[in-house]
Amino acid sequence: MPENDDEYAELNENRSRRMKTIAWIVIVALILVGGGATVLALLVPGA
């Protein structure tokens, strides 16, 4: 039984690392897109 626990612990660590990576990518993308829209709105009066 302990062997299974070790396998699941490794899977949970991998999943946690993957979720953190995806979360950071989403955060950066939102900042870039939001910042880009703000700059466009400031540069182009009709946008």
From TrEMBL:
Organism: Microbacterium rhizosphaerae
UniProt-recorded name of the protein: DUF4044 domain-containing protein
Residue ranges crossing the lipid bilayer per the database entry: 21-44
The entry's keywords: Membrane, Transmembrane, Transmembrane helix
Phylogenetic classification of the source organism: Bacteria, Bacillati, Actinomycetota, Actinomycetes, Micrococcales
